[in-house]
Amino acid sequence: MDMESVMEGAAKRTRRRAALAVLLAAACAAAGTAWARIGLSSQFIDAVLGNLKPGRSYNIRELKGVPYTVKNRGDSPVDVLVDVVIPPKGYREPYEPIPDPTWVQVRPARFRLGAGEAGYSDLIITLPEDDSLKDRHFVAQVWARTWDTGMLAAGVKSDIRFSVGKTPETLEEEKRRKAMVDLDYDFYPASLYVRKAAVGLYDVKAGEKRSFKITNRAEKPLELVIKPIPWQSYTMTLPSGYEQIGGLSWVRFEPDRITVDPDTVKEVKVMLDVPKELKGRKVAFLVQLSLPIGVIVGAANQVYVEVP
After folding, report:
1. CA–CA separation, 172 vs 169, rounded Å?
2. Residue of 137, 135, 156 whose CA lies nearest to 48
């Protein structure tokens, strides 16, 4: 091999090494970017507004006293884009997904945030002049995300819920208050003693002629849900000789959901399936009464069970 061929081969190897070095440098730079910490957060998680009207605009910062905030949790500067998006159907019912994301404007909608820096925006809701929107509830999502960060990106979503009229929460509270005002009933006796319970199935009415009764003195039918709950030692003292017990799956009421017409008395039986570990013990629990909508209206009646 002559000297010219040797030098030409060396030159080719040098060029290949230089190209490889460039590729390695690019790969390392990309890896460095990929492993950089990237993250966004927002304290603006869920805003709820009520009594909005068609044809008007509302600035959430003015109504709630706080702006929309997004913070760069990463260790390098990022560009952030904030959009309003339509959530999936069935998300946060009874709110319905906003039909048009342009109802909510983000100003500004783009930021350049340094590491640890926060950006602030106004969220402005503008409703069309449409009477069909009245008494409806809508939800939209505000989506802040990084862009131009390569293969890795970060994002955070927040909810905006608003009602064209009263919010579902307000309507539910009004319904509960009205239901409480309409109540006028007695559930007695205050204390029911079961003295001969045996291990296994035990009908307290059949065995000891004892049961609860409920009288509805109101002008409307009364509907209650009845269930046993553990003794509440912070509200009343447990009588000497009795112990409170946690699991009450062996206790049921018949019926456990009752409708009582006005000026009517109905009976509620206590049915037991006494576990063998209660033999020789005396236990106590309470009776909880609630409306079908979940409002608890009573939890003071007591049941004392003795298993000889």
Report:
1. 5
2. 137
Backbone angles phi, psi at 171, to 5 degrees: -60, -40
Name which of 281, 286, 283 is nearest 301 in CA terms: 286
Residues 6+ apart with CB under 8 A from 262: 216, 217, 218, 219, 220, 221
Phi-psi region of 155 (alpha: psi -120 to 50; beta: other; left: phi over 0): beta
d(CA 97, CA 141): 9
Confidence of residue 151 (pLDDT cuts 50, 70, 90): low
CA atoms of 167 and 165, how far apart (whole Å): 7
Ordered by where they begin, the domains of the chain are: 40-172 (2.60.40.10), 182-306 (2.60.40.10)
Q: Which helix (H) or strand (E) holds 62?
A: helix 60-64
Report the alpha-carbon distance of residue 106 to residue 83 in Å, rounded: 7
- Is there a contact between 121 and 142 (Cβ–Cβ < 8 Å)? no
pLDDT of 74-132, one tens digit each? 889 999 999 999 999 999 999 999 999 999 999 999 999 999 999 999 999 999 999 99
**How far apart (Å, rounded) are the C-alpha atoms in residues 79 and 115?**
11
Residue type, 139: V
